[in-house]
Amino acid sequence: MQFERAKEVILEKLNKELPKHLSYHSVSHVTDVYTAAEYIGMLEQINKNDMKLLLTAALFHDAGFMHGPNSHEEESCRIANHYLPGFNYAIDEIEKINGMIMATKLPQMPKTALEEIICDADLDYLGRDDFFPISNNLYAEFSYAGIVNNENDWNKIQVAFFEKHHYFTNSAVRLRQKKKEENLSLIKAKIKA
Question: How far is CA 71 from CA 33, 91, 105, 192, in A?
Fold first, then answer.
């Protein structure tokens, strides 16, 4: 498995081909999810091989946005299936990676420990101090796409999302739940009656 080479190639491709208006689904989101996945994976004590598969899934999980937002998880799997055999990933490894990518689709429904980790990594920011700047990037992206019209509507969407969301791994619950609840309270306080 030529992990470092695969990482280099996909990051270069994402840098060149992700639409510039994507203020949230950008290379910085991919590297953020990668870092969170590595940290949670370490805390959950996964083995070295599983870590490489997890981090590969993190790198590819939003690659489909190069071709648009619709069914981007399926497109991300297609891109992974195209590139990873060239980096000596075995069929069963690619299948695990596809499972992790598909697990990030909302609503998240992970079936394995690795899928739980990537789901938690993908939404790690909900329970962090940098939640609001990252959330503002998603708001900008949604505004550009015409999904939301104003900040009040956006905040209502966020509250509904927060209330449905939960972390899967013990590590993410321990690390992020308290701050996530604080962030939710702050969003609720912004909503105009």
Answer: 19, 22, 9, 33
The pTM for the full model equals 0.96
Rounded-to-integer distance, Cα 111 and Cα 27, Å: 27
What CA–CA distance (Å, rounded) separates 73 from 115?
A: 14
- Residue range 126-140, pLDDT digits in tens: 999 999 999 999 999
* Alpha-carbon 132 to chain mean position: 16
Distance CA 85, CA 62 (A): 19
Per-residue pLDDT reduced to its tens digit, 43-93? 999 999 999 999 999 999 999 999 998 999 999 999 999 999 999 999 999
Question: Looking at residue 108, what DSSP letter applies?
Answer: P
Alpha-helical (H) ranges within 44-169 are: 48-60, 72-83, 91-103, 113-122, 131-144, 151-164
Token digits of residue 119:
């789901």
CA distance 112 to 114: 5
Q: What span, in angstroms and rounded, lies between the C-alpha atoms of 61 and 54?
A: 10
Dist. CA 133–CA 64, nearest whole Å: 24
